[in-house]
Amino acid sequence: MPDASHIDLAYLLLGAFSGVLVGFTLGLVGGGGSILAVPLMVYLVGVPSPHVAIGTSAFAVAINAATGLIQHARSGNVKWRCGGMYAFAGIFGAFLGSTLGKAIDGQKLLFLFALVMMVVGGLMIRGRRNMGIPGAQCNRENAPKVLGFGLGTGAFSGFFGIGGGFLIVPGLIASTSMPMINAVGTSLVAVTAFGLTTAANYALSGLVDWMLAAVLIAGGVLGGFGGTWTARRLSGQGLLTTVFAVLIFVVAIYMLLKSGGVL
């Protein structure tokens, strides 16, 4: 029988590696952190409970999103008013959604998560040629739309235990018409808020592995620097949206095959 310390070391190393991938994705497209984190926790690291994987990844993604937010803010990519409005409305949705999500079977939750990802990926591919309006802001005219998208996105975020960036980015673009690079940076305000709200709710039920969360965060900080650097170079070429959608499709297909017993 293998030594327990070796198992623990491998568990934490895989967690740190997962964190690098999550941080890179957050820095690159502002979302996808939990899209990667939840399946990585379950299928690569080997966290036995999907609910623990969700609670742990929600906390780690929130902290990693905060570090990515700082980097994007330095580059001038963050629309703070839009991010604040979106996050304010979304926190209420995230709390309600996470309360409901805890009551549903973990494997069914992962399957539903993958189906939602496929729909969002298709919508992003459809609108990939829309470059947005430079200088777009949040004002009285679009405030109801921004708040509505924020509330709905927060509910999805909490229900699936995700930071929600893969929904927030298209939500910000749909409600404000801002360019992709601004949506990426601004989304991290809400990703941080949603993730912390969801993680707090799961932590109250003892569904967060704090040691694993720590190594996820450490790896995510390293990956975040690389992701933000890459995002700045892809934004001018209009490739960010395509990269974002492809990532969603790949992970969603893997999760559907896994949950269906094909893999």
From TrEMBL:
Spans through the membrane: 12-45, 51-70, 82-103, 109-125, 146-169, 181-204, 211-231, 237-257
Keyword tags: Cell membrane, Membrane, Transmembrane, Transmembrane helix
Subcellular localization(s) per the UniProt record: Cell membrane; Membrane
InterPro entries reported for this sequence: TM_pro_TauE-like, TSUP/Inactive_protease-like
Chief location: membrane
Database matches in Pfam families: TauE
Membrane topology: Multi-pass membrane protein
Family (UniProt): Belongs to the 4-toluene sulfonate uptake permease (TSUP) (TC 2.A.102) family.
Descriptive protein name: Probable membrane transporter protein
Organism: Novosphingobium decolorationis
Lineage: Bacteria, Pseudomonadati, Pseudomonadota, Alphaproteobacteria, Sphingomonadales
